[in-house]
């Protein structure tokens, strides 16, 4: 990777994912654009939570890249398994990134290979959805529509991050960690709690949970899994940067 004085960009979708990697970052401060800058090990980094959903992910990634012109771009966060061979806390390195419209430009081969050389990681296809995929049946349908025959997971941002980095000729990798398995059933109302940007409105989720208290246990389990999964992925990213990017 060229330009060692330029930072490596690390983006997440939600604050819980960002907090996990910030807790491992030294000399953290906010720059004038409200991005976090610091050092992860010996590597200069710039970090941000772009927001969830395709629109916010694209806007956040574009702004960070245009301001800081990073030498590499790492998208990280949780994902849901689409296939049964993936289980909670598996760490994934994107082999390809797909959304409803097309396949995004390919991840950087060198950066992805370095991630795959670390213990505990595996390749998978990442499918970017426009909203939560809450049932086994919906996950099976999404996996089938992607045309992917190997391990696959779903998220709501990877394709947007991939395209923004690729448009600026920034080598990128997407790293995800499984937070829920292919057979896990999530509250169905999550897909109804979306705003106009395609993001999940947490206030709407809280209100719906109050009307369906039986779903609260599932939400608490989700939150716990997200925090634990994010912590494990943050440790992996720190290890990756320590190997040189």
Describe the protein in words:
The chain has 245 residues and is of the alpha/beta class. It has a single domain, classed as Rossmann fold (3-Layer(aba) Sandwich). It has a 5-stranded mixed β-barrel with strand order 5-8-7-6-9, surrounded by 4 helices. Helix 2 packs parallel to helix 5. The chain is globular and about 50 Å long. The mean pLDDT is 94.
Q: Give the CATH superfamily.
A: Nucleoside phosphorylase domain
Structural class: alpha/beta
Number of domains: 1
- Beta fraction: 15-25%
Share in helix? 25-40%
CATH topology: Rossmann fold
Arrangement of strands in the largest sheet? 5-8-7-6-9
Supply the CATH architecture: 3-Layer(aba) Sandwich
Outline:
With 245 residues, this protein is α/β, with parallel strands linked by helices. 36% of the residues lie in helices and 25% in strands.
List keywords for this structure.
Rossmann fold; 245 residues; alpha/beta; 5-stranded mixed β-barrel; 36% helix
Question: What order do the helices and strands come in, and which of them pair?
Answer:
Layout lengths: L7 E5 L2 H8 L3 E5 L5 E5 L2 E7 L4 H15 L3 E10 L9 E8 L10 H8 L4 E8 L7 H11 L5 E4 L2 H10 L4 E9 L21 H10 L4 H27 L3
Helix pairs in contact: 1-7, 2-5
């Amino acid at each position: 990777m060229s330009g060692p004085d330029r930072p490596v960009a690390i983006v997440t979708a939600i604050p819980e994912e960002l907090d996990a990697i910030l807790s491992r970052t030294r000399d953290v401060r906010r720059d004038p654009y409200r991005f976090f800058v610091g050092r992860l090990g010996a590597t200069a980094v710039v970090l941000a939570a772009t927001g969830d959903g395709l629109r916010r992910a694209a806007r956040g990634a574009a702004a960070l890249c245009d301001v800081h012109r990073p030498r590499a771009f790492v998208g990280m966060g949780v994902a849901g398994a689409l296939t049964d061979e993936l289980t909670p806390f598996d760490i994934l390195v994107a082999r390809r990134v797909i959304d409803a419209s097309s396949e995004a430009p390919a991840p950087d081969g060198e950066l992805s290979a370095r991630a795959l050389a670390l213990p505990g990681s595996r390749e998978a296809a990442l499918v970017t959805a426009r909203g939560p995929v809450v049932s086994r049946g919906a996950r099976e349908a999404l996996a089938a529509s992607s045309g992917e025959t190997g391990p696959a997971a779903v998220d709501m941002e990877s394709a947007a991050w991939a395209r923004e980095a690729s448009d600026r000729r920034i080598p990128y990798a997407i790293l995800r960690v499984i937070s829920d398995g292919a057979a896990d059933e999530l509250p169905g109302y999550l897909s109804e709690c979306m705003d106009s940007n395609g993001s999940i409105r947490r206030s709407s989720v809280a209100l719906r949970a109050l009307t369906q208290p039986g779903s609260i246990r599932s939400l608490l389990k989700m939150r716990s899994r997200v925090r634990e999964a994010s912590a494990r992925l943050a440790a992996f990213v720190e290890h990756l940067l320590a190997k040189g990017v």
